[in-house]
Amino acid sequence: MEIITTQTQRRTKTEMVLANIFKLPPIPKVLLEASKILDSKAPKSKLLVDVISKDQSLVTKVLSIANSPLFGLQRKVTSMDFAILVLGFSELKKIISALSVIETFKNKTDKYLDQKEFWLHSFLTGSISEKIAEDVGFQVKGEAFLAGFLHDMGVAVIHRFFHSSFVTISELQENSGLSLLEAETEVLGMDHAEIGSFLAENWNFPTSLCDVIRYHHAPNESLSNFLLASIIHLADFTTKHFNVGQFAVDKNLELDMEVMKNMRIHSEDELNTFISGYDTFLLEQSEAVRYLS
């Protein structure tokens, strides 16, 4: 009873701190405006160029990606109009989402969290989520990327706004054998999935997306988007399986095979067969993310 009371008190304190963080990052304005245009039935390139051009650093990075060897163009991309033509609306939305959020949560690397490693993992999880969603017939691929990219957003919040707790969590995880979720709950009374969901709600994201972020470690508990939560769960595991974009803090991630059965994956052999085709894709995406930093 005493332990429960202590954890409840820690949770209450954490919720109070989160509610009173006036500098909690707002959703990037350029992401909001660009997403609105890209989600329309007939996106207009001129409107998109006008929005993106408000952020010169974003323009520079988008052009850098369009000129990368990934697209193999002989001609240099020097304008946003041409970049949109090269990248396409879907790819552009993914890039803008990633760049905007990375900029919002920009923080210094320390021995407890490598920022490049963290964002590499986030981008790869988003990319593989989108690919799996397409392969299993999930209709909203863009939502799959964003959910995958933001699934560990709570980790970034803890590292930035609860840094001393982050240090304690890291050391507790290292010395006690606890999982990341267990160590977070022990120290803060809640874990990064709950905290990430809190921020998503603060950004007025759709309830279903907040739900996926909240339950990406336990898709069976998802209240409104079980399939997408399962896709993110599998994508997260896939990056670990191929040792591409490994996220050291979350090294003890285990796949929930009960969840996989609902995706018609009933054994480890079937799992290996399913994800074997994503090896090359992940390596290509790993190369792509280099141009985001």
Topology:
Blueprint: H1 2-19, H2 29-38, H3 45-52, H4 56-66, H5 80-87, H6 89-104, H7 115-135, H8 141-150, H9 153-161, H10 163-176, H11 180-188, H12 192-202, H13 207-214, H14 226-241, H15 257-261, H16 268-275, H17 279-289
Helix pairs in contact: 1-11, 2-3, 2-6, 4-5, 6-8, 7-8, 7-14, 7-17, 8-13, 9-10, 9-12, 10-11, 12-13
Give short descriptive properties of this protein.
293 residues; mainly alpha; single chain; Hypothetical protein af1432; 66% helix; 2 domains
Can you offer a commentary on this structure?
The protein is an all-alpha fold and 293 residues long. It has two domains: 26-104, no CATH class; 108-289, Orthogonal Bundle (Hypothetical protein af1432), CATH 1.10.3210.10. It has helices spanning 2-19, 29-38, 45-52, 56-66, 80-87, 89-104, 115-135, 141-150, 153-161, 163-176, 180-188, 192-202, 207-214, 226-241, 257-261, 268-275, 279-289. The N and C termini lie far apart (47 Å). The mean pLDDT is 84.
The portion of residues forming beta strands comes to under 5%
Let me know the number of strands.
0
**Which stretches are low in confidence, meaning pLDDT under 50 for 5 or more residues running?**
none
Structural class: mainly alpha
Major sheet: size, sense and barrel closure?
none
State the helical fraction: 55-70%
Measure the end-to-end span.
47 Å
Brief summary of the model shown:
By secondary structure, the chain is mainly alpha-helical. The protein has helices at 2-19, 29-38, 45-52, 56-66, 80-87, 89-104, 115-135, 141-150, 153-161, 163-176, 180-188, 192-202, 207-214, 226-241, 257-261, 268-275, 279-289. The chain is globular and about 60 Å long.
